[in-house]
Structures are given as C-alpha cells and as structure tokens.
Sequence to fold (190 residues):
Amino acid sequence: MLKTLKVSRVELRSQLLKLDLSDRPEEAADRDRMITLLDDCSTCFSRETFPAHFTGSALVVSWDATRVLLHHHRKLDRWLQFGGHRDGSEGVLSVARREAFEESGIAGLTPISNHPFDLDIHEIPAFGAEPAHEHYDVRYLFAAPNGATATISSESNELRWFTLEQAQHQNLDPGLLRMIARLKSNTLAP
Fold:
C-alpha cells in the first residue's frame, strides 16, 4: 500500500504562494486562478465540481532523470503524464503518486520534492454526461527506482520511456513540453 502524502488545502495554498514563478508568467497566472478557486469553492477537489476542479499529476522520470515515462491515454488519445482526480484522497500530491502507481504499475515512486514542479490549467473536452471543464492541475516530479518495469493499465493504449530529447519532439501539450524542457535544463527546484 502507498504511503499517503497529505497536503491540506491550507498547506497547498501556502505552497502555491511560496513558489517563485517570477520567470514563469504563464504558471503565475494559473497559480492566481488556483488560489482563487481554493478560496472561493469549498468543493474544488471534487470531480463533480464544474466548470473547474483540482487534479494532481506526476511526471515520472528514470532514476537518473534522463528519461520520462508517458502513457498514451485511451480516452484522450494523446501522450500524457500520469494524473487524475482526488477520489477521496487527502491531497493532490497523494493523488499524483496514486495515479502514477495505478497507471504505470511502478512501485516505489519517490517524489523529488513535496512542492509542485509545475502548475497548469487546461480544458478537458465533454465526454458522455460530463461537460467540458477545466483541470487545475498541480504537477509533481517522481523518480522511478533503477530498473523499474512499467505495466500498462486499462487507462492507456501504451506506456513508453522517452529520452528528454525524444519527448520534446512528440506532439505533446504545451504544459507537458514545458515540464520536460525544465527537466532537461536541470531546473528541478520548484
């Protein structure tokens, strides 16, 4: 069983405020919107809250940080980092870790930091009875153990390790490309 990584609403707000985003204006704007949602919406962690709610995601890197593990998401039909909804968990860091484990099958994922690595607000298209909405995604960096073997889940078409260079040449969303570029530049601090 995974150890719960608890970060309360108050702690998340504090972490967001402490992030130095002076050279990351897009993320600074997303942080301001995230703080507003935290302050104004008591159900902001519920997947049933529309038009926006928080999610947690994990960019999984190899033990030596030279490769990233991505999954080709079955529903969204694109390469993504691992992530998802709170589903009763205590906080977005726990969500990120749980989703990375469930979607990759890799035990022993270790957070590089308990602070967010990246912030991103992105639109999710309508699907079934669920309307189009926004994910306020708080993103963390996790290291896989040396020699880790990934196992595909029902949420993915494929799992693949990419070198940082290979990943930058995939048709990835801008937020994921931004995280990979930051990782490639060795700017791992939040």
Observations:
- The longest helix spans residues 25-40.
